[in-house]
Amino acid sequence: MPIGPGKYDAICTEVRERTKAAGAIVIIVGGDRGLGFSCQADLAVTASLPDILEIVADEIRKSMSRGPAVT
């Protein structure tokens, strides 16, 4: 749930404060508390999260279709 503290709220706070961001979302996969996320943002940003995440998903799909990154 994006409203109220999540499992990884302390980490999200650290990310937001260190970057001086107005808001942050942290998604954890395989963490010590399992899968989870924490979101810290005002109501307008929280309400726009589905759209923001769809944009991110599209970017990931486009990147993956180009093949693995060469390092």
Structure explained in plain terms:
It is a single chain. The protein is built from two helices and two strands, in the order H-E-E-H. It has 71 residues and is α+β, with helices and mostly antiparallel strands. It has one domain. Strands 1-2 form a two-stranded antiparallel ribbon. Strand 1 and strand 2 form a beta hairpin. It starts with 8 loop residues before the first helix and ends in a 6-residue tail after the last helix.
Key attributes of the depicted protein:
alpha+beta; 2 helices; 14% strand
Distance between the termini: 37 Å
Percentage of residues assigned to helices: 40-55%
**Element-level helix/strand string:** HEEH
Q: Strand order, biggest sheet?
A: 1-2
Summarize the structure.
Helices cover 48% and strands 14% of the residues. The chain has 71 residues and is an alpha+beta fold.
Question: What's the SSE blueprint?
Answer:
Blueprint: H1 9-19, E1 24-28, E2 36-40, H2 43-65
Antiparallel strand pairs: 1-2
